[in-house]
Amino acid sequence: MNAIARQEPFDLNDPALRARAVAAARGDAPFDMLITGGRLLDTVTGLIREADVGLVGALIASVHARASRIDAVEIIDATDGILTPGLIDTHMHVESSMVTPAEYASAVLPRGVTSVVWDPHEFGNVHGLDGVRWAIEAARALPLRMILLAPSCVPSAPGLELAGADFDAAVVTEMLRSPAVGGVAEVMNMRGVINGDPRMSAIVNSGLASGKLVCGHARGLTGADLNAFMAAGVTSDHELTSGTDLSAKLSAGLTIELRGSHDHLLQEFVEVLNGLGHLPPTITLCTDDVFPDELYQSGGLDDVARRLVRYGMKPEWALRAATFNAAERLKRSDLGLVASGRRADLVLFEDLTEFRARLVISDGRVVARNGSMEATVQPLDTAPLIKSVKLPLLTDDDFRIPAKGERVRVATIDRPRFTQWGEAETYIRDGFVVPPVGSAMIAVAHRHGRAGGTPRNGFLSGWGEWRGAFCTTVSHDSHNLTVFGGNAADMALAANAVITAGGGMAVAKDGQIEAILPLPLSGLVTDASLKDTASAFADIRKAMGKIVDWKPPYRVFKACFGATLACNAGPHQTDRGVADVVTGKVLEGPVLEIF
Description:
Blueprint: H1 15-26, E1 31-36, E2 39-41, E3 48-50, E4 52-56, E5 59-64, E6 72-77, E7 82-85, E8 87-92, H2 101-108, E9 113-118, H3 121-127, H4 129-140, E10 145-150, H5 169-176, E11 181-187, H6 190-194, H7 198-210, E12 213-216, H8 223-231, E13 236-237, H9 243-252, E14 255-259, H10 266-276, E15 283-286, H11 292-298, H12 301-310, H13 315-322, H14 324-329, E16 346-349, E17 357-362, E18 365-369, E19 372-373, E20 407-414, E21 420-429, E22 432-433, E23 439-445, E24 456-461, E25 469-472, E26 481-485, H15 488-501, E27 504-509, E28 512-518, H16 530-547, H17 559-562, E29 571-574, E30 577-580, E31 585-587, E32 591-594
Parallel strand pairs: 1-6, 2-7, 8-9, 9-10, 10-11, 11-12, 13-14, 14-15, 20-24
Antiparallel strand pairs: 1-4, 2-3, 4-5, 7-16, 16-17, 17-18, 18-19, 20-21, 20-32, 21-22, 23-24, 23-26, 25-26, 25-27, 27-28, 29-30, 30-31
Helix pairs in contact: 3-4, 5-7, 9-10, 11-16, 12-13
């Protein structure tokens, strides 16, 4: 067998394996494994029926009448269980869970997630190609199937921010040559694609030339802009903002990666889909970003399915979206269906409401049982990911804006998430601009060593009164050091705690560090256990509640991590200044006029 044929999905076409499966299906040879006594969910018809399933190696050899066969090396009793294909997460970032790929795999496999589509653009933004190569190697030995994508937007908005690397079309093409890479990851530079920017056009075209997926990030796009984005070759979206947006993008023909990370929208989405009376074949499910405490307590894609069902979606629909539809999207005819000739990725659920997995099988091997891993999970050496925060310690004055005069007019970034430009007048005291009444401060410092690390400061409106400061190196997507706060002293304290830790998060209040989560690997993850990471992150959440009052759904803790995402419409603070992708404008500082 040649090297290409050994890669998935061609590994199932080994003649010896197929011959053994055919013989077992005929009844002339025993199965390697026989699952008996359960019920089977057919993800094509949506029907549940009694059936036994026989496996030979990584292949499903037979789906047959209950108790009609007993010849097998191993027999598994599935009584009272429901057998489904393994769940497929169509868009996610391991780094958002702040643990290593091995730890992530150990968390989701026992819950029935057997495949994920991982965009490692967080590692790419910090370490460049070396970060993507590390991700490929980390995924290679895991029992969790990880289909990696080539990060398309490193940085997300060239010219408006500076990341740790710069991926042009040549770099993306190089990544696409790897059999481990399944396509181009979410194309976030929407304006570049729509405007025919040569850089983004070349990146998208490299994906089209490869014959692999070209995935999207179409937040806020409608009408001519959406048509232009899709005409370029982008075929999916997970950035839905409302039920109306879902309907429009379904009608447009995009594959939808319905994500669980924006729970406040899920019920509205369910109502739209229920109103159709059927589940469109272009609906898939994804997690996108799952914080460590959420992953530890609730799970990954299984939690998305569970919440959709609670909001009124039929369990059969949720599972079809998470299996068959996902496999069709990925052009993986070996996945997503319990049928003879398909890959033996199977989950035995106790029920179809809580989705508790009794047994998980990947490639014909039992990898988890009753919520615990049985397969070996081999972590990769994390040494290449350390020392990514290339910044000296900062001072209080680094978080102040110098100015001469008495009064000043400044630009502000109004509203979390859906930002807009604003202005305010304030005064100057002791040579520095006093933050406008009711505003909070934000500062971003380049931390990758490709430019100076002096923080660029700005003012936020609509973020409430801050009684302390929060610093993070998890700051989408360039992941520069970002600090929010109500006073310069606490901002410097939090920033220096994070710099000293080699990356991570810290909350400061009244001159004290209230909580800290070190993330010394890329400034994004830790090699600590998920349990310990979840606990430390929960402490950060709790401490944040002491320094700012949240106002859902937009002024929430999660908004802090996307406040610098410069590819989204509206002004955003970056390491270059206050940037707006629509106008291409960058203000190095917020001062507009002194008088």
